[in-house]
């Protein structure tokens, strides 16, 4: 039994096959992550060529038979391939689509992730948003979209909203104000003294990042703003570095894996 599907999606990956064919990994608006076989689409003479390139957002007509999908036709909506002209932006774009491929699932509701990916690629190709900011916003918002949004409303212990410094727990996704963190730290030290080395040592071993007020404001903005407003803020270089470091740590902790594309991006930036 086969069916015809009409959907929109962003091409995240491609695998070249013989005779100008290829498999495309597409993040779609209605069927989550989808692997689509495209016959002859690698040929520049094929009418679907431009719509089937990496970083292309296109409308697809697909024939699905069992667990396999075959491209019937495609129409380009917008190509972000120009991102390849800048090495840093290209490296970041490859990292973004790599993470999206890891997060998205077949038949899941992935429209928020699709919109986020498109928004990030638009900022890299059409706007002057710093690559560091695009990367950090993507990491934090993407995790928020799949259920790992940190609790940034108030101190986990006392509920206080503002603080001179914020102590953000990467693993638990929450923060404590300065007073509560030091109180908790003293309690942990006293508790640890009562434990011997064969028992649960390191009760306070979570990764804690000290966050400045400006960085915390940026994190709250990214997590709680509407999708169309997530890039509407500015940070000075030092705060942007801090923001980027925290968002990267948060993503790697909760996805529990690394990315070769991230390693390459780091190498290019450094």
Structure described in brief:
It is built from 7 helices and 8 strands. With 270 residues, it is α+β, with helices and mostly antiparallel strands. The protein has 2 domains: 1-79, OB fold (Dihydrolipoamide Acetyltransferase, E2P); 84-270, de novo design (two linked rop proteins) (Up-down Bundle).
Structure write-up:
- The chain is built from 7 helices and 8 strands, in the order βββββαααββαβααα.
- With 270 residues, the chain is of the alpha+beta class.
- It folds into 2 domains: 79 residues, Nucleic acid-binding proteins (OB fold (Dihydrolipoamide Acetyltransferase, E2P), Beta Barrel); 187 residues, de novo design (two linked rop proteins).
- The strands form 2 sheets. It has a 5-stranded mixed beta barrel. It has a 3-stranded antiparallel beta sheet with strand order 7-6-8.
- The longest helix is centred in the last third of the chain and has 19 residues.
CATH homologous superfamily caption of the largest domain: Recombination protein O, C-terminal domain
Largest sheet descriptor: 5 strands, mixed, barrel
Number of beta strands: 8
Strand content: 15-25%
- If you average the pLDDT, what whole number results? 91
Count up the helices. 7
- Secondary structure category: alpha+beta
Which fold name corresponds to the CATH topology of the largest domain?
de novo design (two linked rop proteins)
Secondary-structure blueprint:
Layout: E1 2-16, E2 22-28, E3 33-38, E4 56-65, E5 68-79, H1 87-103, H2 111-126, H3 131-145, E6 166-169, E7 174-177, H4 178-193, E8 208-211, H5 213-224, H6 237-255, H7 260-269
Parallel strand pairs: 3-5
Antiparallel strand pairs: 1-2, 1-4, 2-3, 4-5, 6-7, 6-8
């Amino acid at each position: 039994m086969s069916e015809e599907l009409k959907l929109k999606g962003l091409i995240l990956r491609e695998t070249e096959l013989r005779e100008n064919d290829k498999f495309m990994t597409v993040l779609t608006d209605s069927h989550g992550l989808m692997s689509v076989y495209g016959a002859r689409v690698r040929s520049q003479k094929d009418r679907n060529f431009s719509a089937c390139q990496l970083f292309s957002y296109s409308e697809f007509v697909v024939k699905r038979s069992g667990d396999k999908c075959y491209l019937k036709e495609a129409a380009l909506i917008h190509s972000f391939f120009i991102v390849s002209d800048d090495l840093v932006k290209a490296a970041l774009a490859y990292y973004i689509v790599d993470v999206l491929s890891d997060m998205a699932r077949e038949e899941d509701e992935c429209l928020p992730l699709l919109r986020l990916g498109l928004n990030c690629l638009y900022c890299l190709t059409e706007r002057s948003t710093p690559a560091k900011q695009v990367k950090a916003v993507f990491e934090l918002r993407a995790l928020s979209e799949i259920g790992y949004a940190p609790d940034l409303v108030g101190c986990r212990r006392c509920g206080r909203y503002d603080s001179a410094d914020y102590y953000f727990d990467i693993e638990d996704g929450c923060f404590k104000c300065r007073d509560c963190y030091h109180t908790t730290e003293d309690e942990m030290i006293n508790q640890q003294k009562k434990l011997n080395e064969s028992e649960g040592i390191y009760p306070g071993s979570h990764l804690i990042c000290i966050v400045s007020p400006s960085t915390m404001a940026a994190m709250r903005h990214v997590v709680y703003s509407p999708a169309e407003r997530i890039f509407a803020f500015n940070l000075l270089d030092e705060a942007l570095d801090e923001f980027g470091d925290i968002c990267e740590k948060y993503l790697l902790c909760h996805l529990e894996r690394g990315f070769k594309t991230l390693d390459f991006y780091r190498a290019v930036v450094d």
